[in-house]
Design brief:
alpha+beta; 13 helices; eleven-stranded mixed sheet; disordered N terminus
């Protein structure tokens, strides 16, 4: 793989609702209207007056540390706004493009060489060089900071990194890695003066905006980087606030209190101020196979058969999603077109559970279904539907709605002990475009977000990782099929679509990366039309 593109310009990269009653597979679910809280939510004058772009999110980011930007809540603020990577992936075409790098090539079987862009400065005025790039990779991958990007992207592999002058960098892997440039697209570049002993609260990068102020629990403010090397963003300031209720976020758009609102409810889909887009996220139940009754594959497969995906999509997700048969969405290398969604067969699922019970499996042991508040619009209702559908086949399920920090404790290793069998409602976004990032996290026996696996599946994943091109596609497609048939750690729900609220005063086209990386420099004001001469 080689890129030789060189450029001095950066490449492209609501109202309160009435009570609504929904029925899914016999369960009645109620959602109700909610008044707008904290009506100053987006702060100072709006985009038309004060030049501040106002964004309302579902939750406050847990951190702004750049090496944690693969976390959705962090990346949506930090990535491509405050910090930038060497390489970026075009979310529409899937092609890699140079950013802080000018190009790259594989110079040895395990070594890649990158050209580094000159004339770029950090927001603190320091010039960016290959030394900063090398430092950023070392800090994110080879340090003891336990960065999410380390396990998620590199699987704890160590890299040898060397700056060869100010504009040349070499990266050497332990074994041949055909997609190293893609992996490096997840490492945000920071100055080599950045703390290496602790994660930072206020990051410094090369992006079009700098962090002005973070008032915990209130807002995050960004200010335009006037020395930015690329195209200057239209808005001199941006301000993020967060509201967990989708109806509140929608109402803020309708009342002129926000310019962009994320993750709106499907009930708002028909409004002129909303835009639907594919967001590369897949929802699923991760079934902890270490604990009975979920350690029995018959029970895990029964749960997959018990889920009425079409009913959930149509009634609770507004038809804005597509029933899923795998964690990898279409368009990602490794997606298996031949996999069909598990048929909705309640009687057959109940029979599987009964057979497991006859063999001594404690099927009546309480399973905790853990879901995260605000993860997507309607998540509480979806959790209730899943609870009902699992109860129909003889399982005892309770729901625990958790905040982000608590959900992460269940999601990432080391997994909590003494909590019993857990069915974790996850939403996985493969924004990188390659199944390696899904399988290394969610399918490997010791993957950071996997509860168990098998040696044979681990070997299949390792073999697929060493391939490229069509062979890579076929190998990962077979891995996904094997997981469904022989492991069944996941009961899939849907490939999601996002719903974004947009003020009439702004112009922005969301893409599949928007949920993880909302590039504020791509938001432009709508120019007022000049009045006709009398």
């Amino acid at each position: 793989m080689r890129s030789s593109v060189r450029s001095n310009q950066r490449p492209r990269r609501g109202r309160a609702r009435p009570a609504l009653t929904l029925a899914v597979s016999g369960i009645m679910l109620l959602t109700s209207a909610c008044a707008v809280a904290n009506s100053d939510a987006a702060g100072d004058a709006g985009s038309a007056g004060g030049g501040t772009l106002r964004v309302v999110l579902t939750q406050e980011p847990p951190t702004l540390e750049p090496c944690e930007s693969s976390l959705t809540a962090t990346g949506v603020v930090v990535r491509s706004n405050v910090t930038e990577p060497l390489v970026e992936r075009d979310p529409t075409s899937g092609k890699l493009q140079p950013l802080l790098a000018t190009g790259w090539q594989r110079t040895e079987p395990t070594t890649w060489t990158f050209g580094i862009r000159s004339g770029v400065s950090f927001q603190n005025g320091r010039p960016f060089t290959a030394q900063d790039a090398a430092f950023s990779i070392e800090r994110a991958v080879n340090s003891d900071l336990a960065c999410n990007v380390d396990g998620y992207v590199f699987g704890d592999e160590k890299l040898r990194v060397r700056a060869v002058g100010p504009t040349r960098l070499t990266v050497t892997t332990e074994k041949a890695d055909p997609i190293l440039p893609l992996r490096l697209s997840f490492i945000e570049i920071v100055p080599r003066t950045t703390d290496t002993r602790a994660k930072v609260r206020i990051p410094i990068g090369t992006g079009p905006y700098a962090v002005g102020k973070w008032e915990t629990g209130v807002s995050i403010s960004l200010v335009r980087n006037e020395s930015y090397w690329g195209r200057a963003p239209a808005y001199p300031r941006a301000r993020y606030v967060w509201r967990s209720d989708a109806s509140v976020r929608a109402a803020m758009i309708d009342k002129g209190e926000a310019d962009i609102a994320t993750a709106l409810d499907p009930v708002d889909a028909s409004k002129d101020t909303t835009v639907a887009y594919p967001n590369n996220e897949t929802t699923a139940l991760r079934l902890d196979g270490r604990e009975a009754p979920l350690d029995d594959i018959r029970v895990r497969k029964a749960i997959g058969m018990a889920i009425d995906r079409t009913g959930i999509v149509d009634a609770l997700l507004g038809g804005l999603a597509k029933p899923a048969a795998q964690l990898v969405p279409p368009g990602v290398v490794g997606h298996n077109d031949d996999l069909a969604t598990t048929p909705y067969r309640v009687a057959a699922a109940r029979a599987l559970v009964e057979r497991a019970a006859a063999d001594g499996v404690p099927v009546h042991r309480r399973i905790t279904l853990v879901a995260r508040n605000g993860q997507f619009a309607g998540i509480a209702e979806v959790a209730e539907a899943l609870q009902y559908q699992m109860a129909r086949i003889g399982l005892n399920v309770r729901i625990r709605m958790a905040d982000t920090a608590t959900h992460l404790q269940y999601q990432l290793r080391p997994l909590p002990r003494g909590v019993g069998p857990i069915a974790l409602l996850i939403m996985h976004g493969n924004q990188a475009g390659d199944a390696a990032f899904t399988t290394s996290q969610y399918l490997l026996s010791d993957g950071p977000q996997s509860t168990f696996g098998t040696p044979r599946l681990d070997r299949r994943i390792a073999a697929a990782n060493a391939l490229s091109g069509k062979a890579r596609q076929k190998a990962f497609a077979r891995v996904l099929a094997y997981q469904n048939e022989k492991v069944a750690q996941y009961a899939y729900l849907a490939h999601m679509r996002g719903l974004l609220g947009l003020s009439p005063s702004v112009r922005y086209r969301p893409d599949s990366a928007t949920g993880d990386e909302m590039r504020l420099a791509e938001v432009r004001p709508v120019k007022a039309r000049k009045a006709a001469n009398p």
